[in-house]
């Protein structure tokens, strides 16, 4: 009786083409995907749908609704520095150094995210860990997106930080000002939230993923305790970071689905070609390479 062709043979031969393998082409694809994601976020106002604009409008309405309570919240924080919640985020504050000139708050800046993301990418390359590569490089890309967007905002809109205007949260003007007027919006919060939201929406992190959200929330509160941002600025930064991280994760999942479909089709095509060939050595051209196997009939 003629047996079924060993389709698994084709799958095994194609396995080295999976994205976990490190090739120059794969590295190029990593950076190309990250670059396209950055460009997608930067150009989002030009391809946003009506629903997107409605959501953005709702966010800004929420920002406006929070501004009246900015001053009372800032005053409460200033007068409760020894409270449990403020002491809990103490290690994240600018005054808490873990080494010379280094604070845990640096995790939310270029000084923290760039080396950590770069290290994750390099380790991912060495260990053939595709998720680690993607997570590290995408967090760097999201950092670039957040920083660039924020710089544009800082040059356009000036809002005095709480430490420079403790009695008036409405000192907002155009164009932007110096660093004491960079309260709108919280960059530290946006930087970390974009990375955390990407990781949670792109990968199945389980309960650990939910706990990761405590980091951007804690950093946002620490920045408020330092008088760097008002409550409304922090909430906007967290929302902005969550939005861009979630959207980039969705784009990444779409790319993965398309890649999985192409690989499945490639395996099926290889199996079909093997089935139609004569017994013996089988050589089937596949893109830039070839599938090599041995067909046995018994």
What would you note in describing this structure?
With 298 residues, this protein is mostly helical. Helix 2 packs parallel to helix 7, helix 4 packs across helix 11 and helix 8 runs parallel beside helix 11.
Keywords:
single chain; about 300 residues; mainly alpha; two-stranded antiparallel ribbon; 11 helices; 6 strands; elongated; disordered N terminus
Number of strands: 6
Largest sheet: 2 strands, antiparallel
Q: What Rg is obtained from the alpha carbons, in whole angstroms? A: 25 Å
Helix content: 55-70%
Q: Please state the overall shape, judged from the principal axes of the Cα atoms.
A: elongated
* Number of DSSP helical runs: 11
Strand content: 5-15%
Topology order in helix (H) and strand (E) letters:
HHHHHEEHHEEHHHHEE
Task: Provide mean pLDDT, rounded.
Answer: 86
Strand order of the largest sheet: 1-2
Structural class: mainly alpha
First-residue to last-residue Cα separation: 7 Å
Low-confidence regions: 1-20
Please summarize what this structure is.
Helix content is 64%, strand content 8%. With 298 residues, the protein is mainly alpha-helical.
Q: Which helices and strands appear, and what pairs or packs with what?
A:
Layout (H helix, E strand, L loop, with lengths): L6 H8 L9 H19 L1 H4 L2 H30 L4 H5 L8 E3 L2 E2 L6 H18 L2 H27 L1 E2 L12 E2 L13 H16 L3 H7 L1 H12 L5 H45 L4 E7 L2 E7 L3
Antiparallel strand pairs: 1-2, 3-4, 5-6
Helix pairs in contact: 1-11, 2-7, 4-11, 6-7, 7-8, 8-10, 8-11, 10-11
């Amino acid at each position: 009786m003629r047996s079924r062709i060993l389709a698994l043979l084709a799958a095994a031969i194609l396995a080295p083409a999976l994205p976990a393998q490190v090739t120059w082409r794969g590295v190029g694809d990593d950076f190309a995907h990250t670059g396209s994601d950055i460009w997608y976020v930067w150009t989002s106002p030009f391809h946003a749908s009506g629903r997107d604009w409605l959501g953005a409008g709702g966010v800004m309405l929420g920002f406006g609704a929070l501004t009246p309570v900015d001053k009372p919240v800032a005053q409460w924080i200033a007068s409760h520095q020894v409270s449990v919640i403020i002491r809990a985020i103490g290690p994240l504050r600018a005054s808490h150094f873990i080494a010379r000139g280094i604070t845990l708050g640096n995790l939310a800046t270029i000084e923290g995210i760039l080396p950590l993301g770069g290290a994750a990418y390099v380790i991912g390359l060495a260990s053939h860990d595709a998720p680690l590569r993607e997570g590290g490089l995408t967090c760097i890309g999201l950092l670039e997106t957040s920083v660039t967007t924020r710089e544009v905002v800082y040059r356009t809109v000036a809002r005095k930080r709480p430490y420079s205007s403790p009695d008036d949260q409405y000192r907002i003007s155009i164009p932007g000002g110096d660093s004491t007027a960079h309260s709108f919006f919280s960059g530290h919060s946006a930087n970390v939230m974009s990375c955390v939201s990407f990781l949670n929406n792109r990968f199945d992190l389980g309960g650990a993923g939910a706990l990761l959200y405590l980091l951007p929330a804690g950093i946002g509160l620490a920045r408020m305790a330092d008088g760097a941002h008002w409550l409304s600025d922090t909430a906007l930064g967290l929302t902005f970071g969550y939005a861009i991280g979630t959207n980039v994760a969705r784009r990444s999942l779409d790319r993965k689905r398309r890649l999985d479909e192409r690989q499945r089709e490639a395996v099926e095509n290889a199996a079909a070609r093997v089935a139609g060939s004569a017994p013996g050595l089988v050589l089937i051209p596949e893109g830039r390479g070839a599938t090599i196997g041995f067909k046995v009939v018994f």
